[in-house]
């Protein structure tokens, strides 16, 4: 009788445990990271009586959670990749939006500026056209600065989020360390059984940490879990967590470095490449591969445009009869530390500029130039006197370096943010060329001089900037159809690269170069046939020729001239116009954005599949729980009925005795 | 497969989010009329659109310059037509002056008439354009190119401009001359129309017979007329060239516009039908979400 009562009681207990667990499942159906739990029941040990074994009821053998490490790992992998792409996308798509927008992009401002240049070329004496050029120059430089500022702003946003992300990572690391301890204690107390709900909490903390930075885990015998981030850097070990922080130490790109510190120790820098995956990985990558290259491209564009424009402008003459001055101003090449080595843009090799920043190191015998962005190294050999021409740069003072020295060179990095107009007076736009040709009135031949192009204006102007020099007088001598050009004053002018002219084969035009002893030089094209004797030309200074638009035409042509991406160390084969280069930047950012957006979509869908697979095993189904509720309610009632039968039997027994 | 309640909600919501995002994208395309909303939608087409935009803007600038060039050339042509007529008229007067039957006073009145033609010629050679620039001064557009000067009692005009020729870029490879130095249009030095006229006037004013000077003057005037007509012929052919460049320019503009439209513009029919389709899908997702989430065994437990 008592055994019947006991058996009923075990049933009641077990049913109650089942009902409790079912209720626990129902109430936690929406809890993040919750894994449904199940009570496992077993028959109690039987009792041997008279050669037979009799059952003694049921018992609860454990409460387990539906958990699959494999499925969890799949979710974590997809999730950290998704978070990586999402963080990248969040910031790169902002740059993407800014670049091609008709109101904020560079192309409309460039077109407007060069259109205004063409108007000056068509109406060189018209001050309104010149004013319009100055105004559109202001617009263009402001556009460069705005774009640069916008990218900087986005980069600052990234910087801020990196800081916040490190903060969150630290909180999760601490939470995991604490949970490790609680799990170890609780597990020891219950004799090795896992505390499902604590495990769930820890799993959830790891999952959330994993969204911030990719983690891998190793479980120890006491149930505590070691967490590694990125490529194996230990973050949590048992109940101890390390701390990630942004220090004030900058890397060679001027970026604050991520440091790691364990309690009581010095913080040490941790390589960015080790921190891959998760939002942090995405943030570091977008800063490194998205924002900085975009900003460098803008700087390269600004520096190239300004240098090319300034160079040509300085070869012209303005409405006041003075040689042109710089048209644009922008930050010069920065060398850090300054002092020993100095660097400037080499206008002769402008297309050699790459936009990259460099580290120049000297070990006592060898000079090595390292591209900071790509890490690519190249040995360089300075000329006697410590000068070096390298990728569009003129470097000086290399002989001042001592073994172990390293200098950082930032050629165009600050150009887009600092570019502005250097002139504001419309009269100072140098639309004219400083040299005019005149044929002697007595010329009887058909020879003509056209296409005068100034190669260098050095020594051309007096102290007030007015071109003043002796005219070059050209005459001809002839021997069997070959004319030789004579120039006077002979001590002052000389021909560079040939002075003979053969009208029979060259009358369509041959280019000659005259060099003056003061330093300046120019080209001109001679065509037609000069009379053997008597014909002559004079090439003189142009100070009042205000309707001359020759320099304006050359300035305007810079819009469609290939100025950029010459490759090699000298950049002698430019392949892109300014607008081409900008379009390339837009395409590059656009493709990257497209790639990460596609990546995010793919990983989101993989994540959903992985979550579905996991939830299929681990998550609560309320219908199932409702069924369990009914089922265990019934088993409870049945066990109760067993007890009431036992009661009835006992009563029967008593009534027999009455 | 075992289905959890979370899956029903999660997957329903994410399906609706996907549909909504698609619908929003199409809506934005319709609102802007653009196929490409950001370069990420089509990086290659975006970059190409920027290049074509520049080509189109450069071409538009050439078309504007063609207009400027045509105006400038027509102005010069008008002035040179006048100059040609003056030379023709002066030639007739020179011929008349050679008549031995003329009296001294007749010759003086012809001298006065030719003096007026000299002034008219000088005025033409010192014409200014709408910018106030002297047309025939070469680059020296601020100074009158021909300054009246007398050599003893002989009238003449010195050329004070230079030999510069203003050009305008009317196509990617053509810089068209739109001004002509005074020396090119009216002759320079001994060949100057002013020297020819001045010397003949001086001869007439002396009252003596000019029959000896007539042939020299006629030769000089014929040469001047030749010079003017040569420049006018050049202008004429340049005007034809500008007109042709104009046709090419507008053809190109149309081509660029078509290319740009192909790269950027939305096919509205396709987009509207897509919008309708996405709307239907979204509604279906919403309705099925409500249906599925409404089903629960708990509804039947009492």
Protein described:
The complex is a heterodimer of chains A (658) and B (302). By secondary structure, chain A is α+β, with helices and mostly antiparallel strands. Helices cover 43% and strands 22% of the residues of chain A. With 302 residues, chain B is mainly alpha-helical. Helices cover 68% and strands 7% of the residues of chain B. In chain B, the strands form 2 sheets. A two-stranded antiparallel ribbon of chain B has the order 1-2. Chain B has a two-stranded antiparallel sheet with strand order 3-4. The radius of gyration of chain B is 39 Å and the shape is rod-shaped. The chains are: A alpha+beta (658), B mainly alpha (302). Chains A and B meet through helix 2, helix 3, strand 22, helix 9 and helix 10 of A and helix 1, helix 2 and strand 3 of B.
DSSP, total strands of chain A: 30
Q: Major β-sheet of chain B, in short?
A: 2 strands, antiparallel
Strand order of the largest sheet of chain A: 13-20-15-16-17
Find the count of extended strands of chain B (DSSP E, 2+ residues): 4
DSSP helix fraction of chain B:
55-70%
* C-alpha termini separation of chain B: 29 Å
Number of helices of chain A: 11
Give the helix/strand class of chain B. mainly alpha
- Indicate the structural class of chain A: alpha+beta
Q: Enumerate the strands of the largest sheet of chain B in spatial order, edge to edge or round the barrel.
A: 1-2
Bulk shape of chain B: rod-shaped
Q: How do the SSEs of chain B run, as a string of H and E? A: HHHEEEEHHHH
Proportion of strand residues of chain A: 15-25%
What share of the residues of chain B does DSSP label as strand, in percent? 5-15%
